[in-house]
Amino acid sequence: MRRGARWTGLMLFAFASLAFAQEGKGAEPDMTGWKWANFAILAAGIGYLLVKQGGPFFAARSQEIRRGIEEAQKLRAEADARAAAMDARLASLSDDVETMRKASREEGAREDARIRQETERELAKMQANTDREIASALKAAQAELKRYSAQLAVDLAGARVREAMTPAVQDTLVRNFVTDLGQQGTTS
Domain range holding 152? Predict the structure, then answer.
């Protein structure tokens, strides 16, 4: 770069000195040649700078653009993979929902069966309790009926005995009783 800058500087100096040398002669020179020379020097300087500085700049820029394109392609591939995964999930979603519905129905059927069995057990317990209460009430009623029947029989017998009991029968019974007592006392 130093060498090119020196060469460009030398060229500018040489052309500038020639331009000043002709101005000093007093005649109005034809500046067209110098204008073209200045243009050529300027174009060469700009060309040199573009080649020297532009090449690495454009190479770095194209490398950066390539990296950006590659990264964009990677991101696009990842996005496509994610989209495909989401599409697969959405496709399997209806299957998952159907599986969940089926599992829910099966669970409901099991729960119904469990509740039915529990209800049957409770009904059996209630029936057994009811049967025991009925049996107990029946026994109590039968015992009450026997007591009532016995009381009726005693009352009826008492009424018959009172009807049949006359003073003469009473005397006979008392004498027989006393006689029996006397005999039992002698036999003992």
Answer: 2-23+30-167
